[in-house]
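Observation: inputs received (chain + adenosine-5'-triphosphate).
Thought: call the complex predictor directly.
Action: predict_structure
Action Input:
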Amino acid sequence: MTLLSTRGLSKSFAGLRAVHEVDFDLPEGEVRALIGPNGAGKTTFVGLLCGRIAPSSGQVFFDGREISHLPAHRRIGLGMAYTFQITSVFARLSLFENVALAARRRLHGAAAVEAEVMSALAKVGLTEAPERAAGDLSYGHQRLLEIAMGLVQAPRLLILDEPTQGLSDAEIAGFKALVRELSATTTILLIEHNMSVVMEVADRVTVLNFGEILAEGTPAEMHANADVQAAYLGTG
Ligand SMILES: Nc1ncnc2c1ncn2[C@@H]1O[C@H](COP(=O)(O)OP(=O)(O)OP(=O)(O)O)[C@@H](O)[C@H]1O
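Observation:
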């Protein structure tokens, strides 16, 4: 079943075509990587999916329903969760409270919230001191905290924008294991610059270039694709 799709999805900023006529399909259960050179339109595209950015034209469908103009919070209610390149944690709140705020969208009762918050923190490896302020975490760990905030909502679709930025090699290895574990229950769309992550965790890869889909296929196919290589070298 297709969980998420777009048809003719476009967004222009003052004449600049950031996303242009994109037809995209993401089957339920897949881990999909979205890659492309800087400025290719990846963040704009996921902003359109999440409802952070309004489309210039085209449609977005989730679970068979058109959501093109649904506000972001309603899309979260349907089962979409996302983390962005710019961290959105509340710096003065504790790790626990940050995740609890997200958990309370779905759960009622302190015991249920606490259990789910601790489980989400454990999945991303942040259980050591849940009472410390989120603002004291490194940038990379704030990204992991955001993933915990997404996970606690038990989403059907988890969208992650550059989740491994700022993580150490050991933490990246932990992230790969986490994605593999989550993929049993959650569809994942991942914007990722780290090719080892893409090669190891993605079922399929969509390559954006100049706001359009340049190619789509398995990680190995995309790695070997001459058009994709040219786009990364800036000659495509
Ligand atoms: N709010 C905005 N106003 C004007 N132009 C924008 C805006 N947001 C994005 N753009 C432009 O749209 C194009 C696509 O940007 P976008 O951030 O989506 O690319 P990206 O693939 O996510 O890049 P990166 O890998 O560098 O994050 C770029 O040319 C960018 O400058």
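Thought: report the result.
Final Answer: Residues 1-79+156-236 form a domain with the Rossmann fold fold (CATH 3.40.50.300). The chain has a mean pLDDT of 93.
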